[in-house]
Design brief:
Lyase, Ornithine Decarboxylase, Chain A, domain 1, TIM Barrel, 2 domains, nine-stranded mixed sheet, eight-stranded parallel barrel, binds ligand LLP
Amino acid sequence: MEEKKSFLKQNIDFDSPNKNIVPITTSISSDGKLYVGGCSIEELVKKYDSPLYILDEITLRKSCRAYKKALEKYYPGESLPIYASKANSSIFMSNLVASEGLGLDAVSEGELLTALKGGVPNEKIVFHGNNKSDKEIEFAVRNNINVIVDNDYDLERLEEISNSSNRDLEIMIRFTPGIECHTHEYIRTGSFDSKFGFGIEYLNTLFQRISNTKHLKLNGLHAHIGSQIFELDPHKDLGEIMVSVILDAKKYGHYIKKLNVGGGLGIKYIEDDDPPSIDEWVRTISNSVLKACEKHNLDLPTLLCEPGRSIVSTAGITIYKVGAFKKIPGIRTYLSVDGGMSDNPRPITYQSSYSACLVSNPFNINSKNKFTIAGKHCESGDVLFKEIELANCKTGDLICVFGTGAYNNSMSSNYNRIPRPAALLVCDGEAEIIQKRESPLDLLKYDVLPDRFIKQN
Ligand code: LLP
């Protein structure tokens, strides 16, 4: 039997899950079946059906701890990793990051409520957004959640709230540092042409404007330069730029106590990806802030960072069942699965690549056949893999896609009225539901037929 080199045979980095393609508890049983978190994937699908999102608890906790440990190791001042919940927001994820002592970043009332319900302490939550509603801002202020001011509109409303309640309000501001990084343009946010944050050239005016308010106290700076970044230099530059902005703010009487450097560390989706480890990323940013503070004789600010993808992506897998095949001689063979762009919109949105294997033949023994894996949605671009080798694949087989923990569930939709998959947590051979499977009937819940149409029929 021919056994091909497989990404499943790579050495696992246990300290930095983002450097692996697979969850760190992934194993293959003696009869060649895929296991994650000590659970047989085949058995899980028998019980919970497909498609199925699965999160590995050990990988999640390792990622959280890697950030905490590295910050403690490299940054002598206070620090806090803040989980960017847009990557995967749920009561479970909020609870898990809170139990690991992390904070949480939210960008909507929904994410805020999820965080609070999951037990994240209010003072460890930061609230972002380039177009917060009045209701959201008031909710955040009422609940003592740190608001990150993104623009003048935010500032005006916070000034109004602080004046009308006659109390001081601590705020942080987000600015665009003008750093270019090599990632997809949709997920690049730190360049000058970005909808997020104040332009760096506007900051002096802004500092003066905040000084003129009665109750707004500027205590922190935030910047986020993009996502799925493999280079370290942009974050080194960011640390230096942020410290220089602390000095500028000082001239206007603002004492910056907190620096939030955003997230952005990439993960390994495919064999060619080689992201830095969490340790290296934190070391780079910590050293950069430390050195710049030393140079300018500044007290060390509290260092905050906002990892999303590198906390949750590698912990997640998605399982699909193979249905129809369509062979176009001389061109390709389409293999269709029972999910697609509604549970994972990243390939169609960003042309993202993933790694996958057959659950019953993870090492791809005797692989000869190449397939295009298509989703089941009414859209030609609903293709999860343009070309992948899978041995002896047939209808009813299960396919495991790796690295789907981030920006899959959280960006999922009901396109074609397809219900969202269930999500499971696996650990030590046990599986628990963390999100119930939607049913087609659930999707009708918000439809309303006006009375006169009912009478007509
Ligand atoms: N902080 C802020 C303010 C952000 O906007 C983001 C991501 C993060 C932190 C977390 O970044 P991460 O560590 O996950 O790279 N949907 C895209 C990614 C969009 C990222 C949006 N902001 C994707 O699927 O690749």
